[in-house]
Amino acid sequence: MKYLNVLTIAFLLFTSNSYAQKAEQITTKAGTHYITTSINYPVTGTYLIAGELEPIVQLNPDGTGIFQLHDLSKTNMDWGIECFENGTPKYQKGFNYAVYSLYYKSKGDNDAQWTYAHFSIHFEKKKMFISGDRSKNYIDSSEKLTN
Question: How far is CA 23 from CA 61, 87, 135, 143, in A?
Fold first, then answer.
């Protein structure tokens, strides 16, 4: 019986570590934060201003991407959504939206500072926004199951 209990505890510890979200510690001008690239919504993809081809924000699943400011060249970057130390995303939920903190910095520049950008998800519109002007449409995972 003890063997079965030990085996059960080992299994639970293994599976809890397997499903734990990863969090990376960063330092900004405002202090220490933690970021993750997974928030249970499909945040990766290309964000554009309506009707425009540029400037873009591209979020890749591995935490890299492109951030292009107005009238400037594309800059490779690292990115993440603010979370707690255990990887759980921090957000403020409204009636039909949620607001997150997106942090990014130029890739390969050791002196680059992490910069904050406003990130929001509007559930009724099925849109995600970065800095209020760049957006992308998304499909809820629950809708994928029913279609």
Answer: 14, 5, 25, 28
